[in-house]
Amino acid sequence: MKDIRIMDGTIDDKESMFAFFSEVLTHTFRDNDIWDMQDDLKEEIEEKEAFFMESVLEPEKSRRFLLAKLDGDLIGCIAIGPANDSIIEGSKGRCAGWLEVGTVFVHPDHQKKGLADRMILEMEKMLKDQGMSHYVLDSGYPISKKIWTRRYGEPDYVMKDHWGEGADHLIWCVEL
């Protein structure tokens, strides 16, 4: 993992990012046994593409993507941007105005090797350097919820049955 470079995304990364979103999210939907939710998959891919384009074309909007590359190949990404409406609602307004860390994606061939942790540490360093003292992170994917609970402990907020019966949405408020 030492040869991996973490850098800001640029417009030159558009094609590889769009292919990456499609591949990783398709894998995520299969692994989380939500493959039947094809409309949601399509919407999620399109949302990530729009967020990436905003980050490179309108950086003043506070959205930023860091990319992890190995020998020039994209193998991971992490994003920071304004907390979404679900987070604000689910946190009862506590996280309004906070930055959300999200889109923590690692290519399936590189998962479980510490890359997500490395990208999170890099993003946290960047936030600290900007004078930030906290961020928020959320998840509805079953596998991701287990990963984040291991890393951050029990969530600060649970949006019960947000994605349907028994499918809660979890929110962590993280202090730096």
TrEMBL record:
GO terms for molecular function: acyltransferase activity, transferring groups other than amino-acyl groups. CDD domains: NAT_SF (cd04301). Pfam families: Acetyltransf_1 (PF00583). Residues 24-164 form the N-acetyltransferase domain. It comes from the Bacteria. InterPro entries: Acyl_CoA_acyltransferase, GNAT_dom. This is GNAT family N-acetyltransferase. It comes from Alkalibacter rhizosphaerae.
